[in-house]
Amino acid sequence: MTDSATFQYKEEQHLSKVLGPMHIWALGVGIVLVGEFMGWNFTVAKGGSLGAIIACWVIGILYISLVMINTEIGSVIPEAGGQYAMAKYLLGPLAAFNVGLMLVFEYVMLEAADALVVGAILQSVNPAIQSLPYVILTLLLLTYLNYRGVYATLTLNFFITAIAFVTIFVLLFSTYFYIPSQTILRLSELTNGLPYGWIGVVAALQFGIWFFLGIEGTALAAEECRSTARSLPMGTLIGMVTLLVGATVTWFVCSGLVEAGTLGGSVYPLYEAALSTKMSGVIVVMFIGTILACMASANGCINDASRAWFSMSRDTLIPSAFSAVHPKYKTPYRAILFLLPISMAFGFTGLLDQVITFSILSALLVYLFMAYMMFKFRKMYPMDAIERGYVAPWHPFPAIILLVLTLTTLAGMYFGYWVNLLAGLLFYFLASFWFTLHRYKFVDTKAFLKAGTTRWPRPRGY
């Protein structure tokens, strides 16, 4: 292929630049919000009611640090792939392959968890309902929307995410929490404190991540932003504030309406809390909110997983067939269609906590890479070497906090899911082994290593 033909081929692989801050907010919050409707409550089973809220805010600090790092590096990389693209420029092919694969499984597993919750909540209405057709239909519809274009997809995500977020406050105000003499909240009766002490809090960190998991995926849409330096920081940082408020309200309402033992094992804790109010209007609103949150999350997961897979293919780390861009809709349609059956297969296992655990493990491993990449990014490109759309304050403290809290969370995961932890690490080790021995010889290393030089100045010391 000649140089001109190669250039033309690369140009055809570019995605449409149509997104603004609203869409970035919708992508980040849309993916994460479902974690406030399900999954987070396993923190109660691990660490008790107080352990759950402590885990929520400790993990909130982790994600504030992550978002600052992610936004600084991502704001100067107007390219699909997010953390994968960062690893490509900063760490090289093998690390980039691992980060890309971890991103794909983080979002594919989260999409599978969404499908599981949709099935469970439909069956709660009537046990005779066959949830499988509804799950398949929902995923097919969302896949079709992603196939047709990112602008319409994330515009829809904005509205369904906003509606789902409002339903949390409908539940909050239905409890009359602001009138102590009339409130139906019974925090002192239903919470169980710290039954396992501070070890329980460490164990709870694993599922505390579910309050915020996926907000970092906003960087995966960088290539499709009209202005990456404006849209990415604004949409991501506002999204993080939204999630912190929503997470705290969710814990407060659920812990005051549902007994800790029941709450710790529920598949749909916010809906469970709505049922305990015995208010039919609130129950209907929360049912709708839970379904919409699952749809918004699955919608965002399809977007993010496909962008990571597309980017890996475009850089020849996996077969190039998946790098095709639809000639009309400008979407990575083959990547979108390829990942659908994989997500559905994991969803139909019915093992919600196992699916969540693999998604969380994949995310935590990406966070370790991010902490290291921040140090390397600041060393390679000091403040005066390259223009940034956003500058993370107080460096290197966010990177140190991210590293320490991520390692602590992995240690907490070992207490209850050590088999899953070791199995996940073995999977990524074997994938790295396969890439090194087999796939690497097909990688266009010259183009891969040259990629960053067309956009950035030569790094210091290289």
Automatic annotation (TrEMBL):
Gene Ontology terms: cellular component: membrane
Protein's UniProt keywords contain Cell cycle: no
InterPro entries: AA-permease/SLC12A_dom, APC_superfamily
TM region positions: 24-43, 49-69, 89-108, 128-147, 154-179, 199-222, 234-258, 278-302, 335-352, 358-375, 396-415, 421-440
Keyword Transmembrane: yes
Bilayer topology term: Multi-pass membrane protein
Limits of the Amino acid permease/ SLC12A domain: 30-420
BP terms from Gene Ontology: transmembrane transport
UniProt entry keywords in alphabetical sequence: Membrane, Transmembrane, Transmembrane helix
Subcellular location: Membrane
Protein name: Permaease transmembrane protein
